[in-house]
Amino acid sequence: MTVELAQESIVDDRPVIFLDIDNTLYSASSQISQAMGKRIHAYFVSLGLEEERASELHHKYYTEYGLALRGLVRHHEIDPLDFDKKCDGSLPLEDMIKPDPILRKLLQDIDRSKARVWGLTNAYKSHASRVLSILGVDDLIEGVIYCDYSDPNFSCKPEPDFYHSAMRKAGITDPKKCYFIDDSRNNVAAAQRLGWGRCVHFCEQGLETVEGGKPKRIGADGKEALQDAVVIGRLVELRTVWSELFVKDS
Length: 250
Description:
Elements: E1 16-19, H1 32-46, H2 51-65, H3 68-76, H4 80-86, H5 93-96, H6 101-108, E2 116-120, H7 125-135, E3 143-145, H8 160-170, E4 178-182, H9 185-193, E5 198-202, E6 208-211, E7 214-217, E8 230-232, H10 238-241
Parallel strand pairs: 1-2, 1-4, 2-3, 4-5, 5-8
Antiparallel strand pairs: 6-7
Helix pairs in contact: 1-2, 2-3
C-alpha cells in the first residue's frame, strides 16, 4: 500500500474508487469516534480552555472546517503532529476493530481491470495505515490520500482542494470516473459539487457517532443535500450500487 505520495501519479484511464476509512470501512459501533472525541476535547482543555469553551470551539471548528484540527492550527498555532500523537495515535485500535473477512472479500471482488481502489481520509497517514492493517485490507488499497499534518497549510474534506489533489495524485482527470463513499453527508455533497460521478453516502441508521465532539444519531437528520447520491447502510450493498465494477458471479 502506498501512503507516502511524493509525486503525481501517471494518468490512468480506469475509474478510481475513493473509500473513506473511519466510520466507513468499519462500523460506528466500534466507538472509535467517541474515544476520539474525548481525546480531542482533552486537547482543547490542555490549551487552557474551560470545559464549556473547549466544547464550543471543538464543534465550531469541526462545523466550519470539516476537521477540528484545522481550526486548532489556524487559530491556536498548535503542532498538528503533536495533536496526532495525543489523539489518533493514542487510540487502542487493536482493541476496537478486528480483521474483517467480509470487507476483504468485497474489495477482492472489485475487477481491477475496471477500477482502482484508493483511500481518502481526513486522518494522518499513520492512523490510516493502522486501520487498514488491522482490518486486513492494506494490500488491497493502491494508495491513500491523507491530511498531511506535516504541512501547516494542509487541506481536508470537504475543501475542494483536497478532492482536486486526490485526483492528481491518483492520476485521474475526469471527475465522472471518481467513485466515492463516505459516512459524512458534507463530504459526499462536496464531491457531488465537483462533478464526481458515483457518490454513495454510508449511513448506519440508528447507530450513534460523534460529530464535532457531540453525540449524534446517524441518519437522524434525513438525506438533504444528497439528492443524487445513493444511501446505503451496509458496505456489501456496493456490489449492487457499483455492480459494473465487480467481478461477475463473485
